[in-house]
Amino acid sequence: MKHCLSTHIYFILLFPLLLGMLSCRTDGASGEGRPSIVLVIIDTLRADHLSCYGYRRITSPSLDSLAGAGTRWSMGCGQSSWTLPACSSIMTGLSPRVHGAGMDVPTGRVFGLNHAMPLLSTHMKGAGYRTGAFFNVFWLGADFGFHRGFDTYECVDNGDGLAGETIDSAINWLSSLGRDEDFFLAIHLFDPHDPYDPPAPYDTLFTPHGEGAMGDSCWEVTPEGAIARPSQLAHLQGLYDGEIAWTDEQLGRLFAELRRLGLDQRTVVMVTADHGEEFLEHGYFGHGRTLFQETTHIPLIMSGPGVTAGAVEDAPVGQVDILPTILDLCDIAVPENIEGVDLLADPDTARFLPASGINTGDAFDLASITARRMKLIWNAGTDHSSTYDLVHDPGEMDPLPADSVLLGYVLFYWASPCRLEPILLEDWKVVPVLRDLGYIR
Ligand SMILES: [Zn+2]
Asked: In this predicted model, what pLDDT tens digit does every residue of 14-52 receive, in sequence order?
C-alpha cells in the first residue's frame, strides 16, 4: 500500500510537470529546415489501456502529455495481431499481404521481408539522416533485415524488462550527435509483452490486493491460444497495466532529455504499438490468435513541429501511414505504391484498412477490413466472415451477416500480390530459438 500511495503522488506531481515540458511545442512548422524524428514502437500495447484513450487507470502520464501537446488518432488500426507482420507494415508502409512477412498459417512456415525491400530506415539514411535503432525483439533482428539503414543498431532477442536500459542507450546516442545533425531514432520497447513482471512499484500498483508478479505459470499456452483461470483476470490486467506505466515512465525520461538537449523544438515524436493483447474478451489471453479490436486497436500519437497541438483525429488510420507521414514531414519523396497516406494531410474518412496474420489458434489465416464504423473478419480457409458494428458493438460480440462491400474488399486485399518475394525462415539461425518459444512448428 505504501508503494501505491507514493506512486499515485508521483503521478500527480509528474503529470503537470510533463504537460509543462511538452506543451511549449509549436502547432506549426518551425520553418527552419526538416525535423528530426523519434519513432517509438511499444510491443503489445492496446490503445484502450492508455489514460489518454479513456482508460479508467492513470497508466500513461507521459504519453497523455505527448498527446495533449500533439495529435492523437483515436481509430488506429494495426495491420496484424503479432509482431513480425505488424512491424513490417510500420517499416515498409505496406500491408502484410503485400510485404509478405508473417506466417503461412496452414503450414506454420514463417517468412521475413525480402532484404531488398526499402524500409523507413533506408529512406531516412538515404536522405542524409543520422539513424539509430534500439530494439528488443528477435523479430526486429538483423536476421530479418531490420538493421538495414541504421548507422547504429542494437537489438536484443528478448528485451523483457529492458525499457530502462534501452532508453539509456537512446539518450546516450542522442547526446553523441552533432548539435545540428538531423536524426532518425527508432525505439522498440518490449515490456508490456508477457510475462507481466514490471519492477517495483509497478508490480503492485494496479493489482487488486497488492499482489506481485505471477511468474511463468500465469497461463498455459495451448494450440488454440493461451488459457488461464478467469479468476486471475484482474491480477493479470493489473500487472499488464503496471508494465505500461513503467514503460511510460521511461518514455518520460526520453522526452525530458530531448528538451534538456534542446532538441524538442525540431523533433517530431511518434508513438505507436505493433498490436494489442487479449484478456478473455474472446476466450483467451495473449495475441496472435484473432483480429478482434483488443489485438488490432493500436495507439497512434504524434507531437512536434508541424503537428497540430491538442487534436484528436477520429478518421481511421493504420500502421501503413507511418512511413509516408514521416517521409512527407522530412520532405523525402514517398515511393509509389505505398499503401499508407500522410496522416497530417486531410483525413480520408472513407478508407478501407486491411489487417491479416495470426500465429496460433485457427488452422487458417484471418483477414479483416475496417471502414468507418464497420469491420469484417474473414477466414481464408473456410470463407466464413463476420461483420461488426464497432459503434453499437465495440466488443465484437454480435456478428452481423457478411457485408458484401466489405467482403469484396477483403477478397481484393487477400489477392494482393506480394511486392517482393519474402524469405522463408528455414534458412535463418533464429529458427531453433523460435521453435523453442513455440512460435513455429
Ligand atoms: Zn509484438
From this structure: 433 343 333 333 333 344 689 999 999 999 999 999 999
Q: Dig out the grid coordinates for 159 from the structure.
A: 528485451
Q: Separation of 226 CA from ligand 1 center, angstroms?
A: 15
CA 210 to chain centre: 29
> pLDDT grade, residue 11 (50/70/90)?
very low
Specify the 3-state DSSP secondary structure of 84.
helix
- Dist. CA 207–CA 220, nearest whole Å: 21
Dist. CA 284 → ligand 1 center (Å): 17
C-alpha to C-alpha distance for 57 and 41, rounded to whole angstroms: 21
Domain boundaries, given as residue ranges, for the chain: 2-16+35-345
**d(CA 313, ligand 1 centre) in Å:** 25
Mean pLDDT for 230-243 is 93
Q: Which residue has the cell 520497447?
A: 189
Q: Which residues contact 3 (CB under 8 A, 6 or more apart)?
A: 200, 201, 204, 205, 210
Helix (H), strand (E) at residue 410: helix 404-414
Q: What is the three-class DSSP state of 39?
A: strand
In single-letter form, the type of residue at position 137 comes to: V
Note the pTM of the prediction, 2 decimals: 0.91
The pLDDT tens digits of the residues spanning 136-174 come to 999 999 989 999 999 999 999 889 999 999 999 999 999
Length of the chain: 441
Q: Ligand 1: distance of its center to the CA of 136 in Å?
A: 10
Q: How far is the CA of 318 from the centre of ligand 1 (A)?
A: 16
| DSSP-based helix, strand, coil % in the chain, nearest 5 | 35, 20, 45
Q: Tell how far the Cα of 83 is from the centroid of ligand 1, in angstroms.
A: 4
Quickly state the pLDDT bin for 431 (edges 50, 70, 90): low
Q: Are 157 and 141 in contact (CB under 8 A)?
A: yes
Domain 2-16+35-345 class in CATH: alpha beta
Contact status, residue 233 vs residue 369, Cβ threshold 8 Å = no
For residue 67, the CA-to-ligand 1 centroid distance in Å is 22
The single-letter DSSP state of residue 312 is E
Q: What is the mean pLDDT of residues 97-122?
A: 95
Measure the CA–CA gap between 155 and 149, rounded to whole angstroms: 14
The DSSP line for 320-335 is GGHHHHHHHHTT-PPP
Q: What is the DSSP letter of 82?
A: S
